[in-house]
Amino acid sequence: MRIDPTPRALQTVRNLGILAHVDAGKTTVTERILFLTGAVHKRGEVHEGTTVTDFDSQERDRGITIFAAAVSCDWDGHRINLIDTPGHVDFADEVTRSLRVLDGAVAVFDAVAGVEPQSEAVWREADRHGVARLAFVNKMDRAGADLDTAVASIRERLGATPLVAQMPIGSEERFTGVVDLVRMRALVWPGDTGTYEERPVPDALRDEALRRRRALDEAVAELHPRALEEYCADGTVSEVTLRTALREVTVAGEAVVVLCGSAYRNRGIEPLLDAVVAYLPSPADVPPVRGTLDGTEQERAADPAAPLVALAFKVHAAPTGRMTFLRIYSGVLVKGDTVLDTGVGRTERVGRILRVQADRHTETSAAMAGDIVAVIGPKSARAGTTLCAPSAPLVLEAPSTADPVVSVA
Ligand code: GDP
Fold first, then answer.
1. Which residue, among 81, 89, 146, has the nearest Cα to 374 in the 3D structure?
2. Looking at residue 99, what is its pLDDT?
3. Contact of 20 with 87, CB cutoff 8 Å
4. 42-75 pLDDT per residue, tens
5. 358, 71 contact by CB (below 8 A)
């Protein structure tokens, strides 16, 4: 058992959701992320029912992602806590609860179908919860795949401002890479292993890439004062300013950076992870959480020095014991701590703190504001229950008795 006593700096955490219409490729994207970050070593295939986030048997049987699972992985010095949100409309409550605990999300679209009805519903929910987003146009290898049409549907059907940061190289079966329009470099996947080779932009694509970069600069300049200044002075925006601007407008929810790839062919996932780290907010970038105490509203910032407040968003009855998945909003949770379950008004002991990594768990001695972990010990918490310091209670959400405890065989 590995104990990790040092909580990460808030800025290096990304609480990330993958949002999509059923069949757009959310499970495949999730699985590839876990594969590339080393969280799992064998690639699962959706049709075999072996992908790691779909570990519930009912889910495997139905072949769709029903129950959200939280999985931690590492990328470029950052911890990504991945919350798998259901894409099926029947599970809208679960989508809503998952969105509450996220700071940012990747919306996955099918490059042939573009925006589909359920993507619209989930998108509106994400708007309501102020979740910053990137868009990943998946299945670029499919016959009929077209990035520009998918981007138009993001603009028209979702009313979003897309900022297209990549240009595909080749189409359909011959989709082999992308031009990164921010760095003006070609990223090419020679095989299906997920690792790209970086090259200069090929001469034949240069004019189109420059035209698309100019369109990106122009769109960013409309949203960001410094980018506008540079654009007006030089007719272009520098890479450094462009990166800062893309991050700031994404965090503010003013625009959506669009990337593309083929999760199935393992193309586009590494740049997607880079964009998650570069552009999506950390827990330090989002507004303080609001709760109530005796009818009075209070705020708690993501401050490790503040009293503990955490929201239980998922409970699994696992063979190892009842696992309660928590988003910690403020304070530090230490193994052995006594916490107040505001749902039942009782204190309980946190016996173990687990970081869930795909199909295995790593025990940790402490977790802090901004983090997502599972705990063993609390017996009565349900999804929606607040766990907090007994000396400084706060209720984040009125608990509902309808929320299920999910059994995992
Ligand atoms: P989810 O319902 O959104 O979780 O979607 P899945 O990840 O289960 O994918 C739905 C189907 O699309 C599966 O048969 C996948 O193998 C397939 N798929 C996923 N990504 C791609 C892709 O990049 N290209 C193609 N052609 N098929 C894909």
1. 81
2. 87
3. yes
4. 444 444 444 444 444 444 443 333 333 688 889 9
5. yes
209-243 tens-digit pLDDT: 999 999 999 999 999 999 999 999 999 999 999 99
Burial 271-307 (b: 16+ CB within 10 A, else e): bbbebbbbbbbbbbbbeebebeeeeeeeebebbbebb
96: part of which helix (H) or strand (E)? helix 92-101
Tokens of 31: 């699985």
Using a 6 Å cutoff on CB, does residue 224 contact ligand 1?
A: no
Query: Quick check: CB of 119 below 6 Å from ligand 1?
Result: no
Task: Tally helices (H) and strands (E) across the chain.
Answer: 9, 24
Alpha carbon of 276 to ligand 1 centroid (Å): 21
Residues 6+ apart with CB under 8 A from 208: 167
Query: In angstroms, rounded to a whole number, what is the distance separating the alpha carbons of residues 89 and 206?
Result: 43
For residue 364 the two structure tokens come to: 């940790």
Report the predicted TM-score, pTM, of the whole model to 2 decimal places. 0.89
Q: How far is the CA of 117 from the centre of ligand 1 (A)?
A: 17
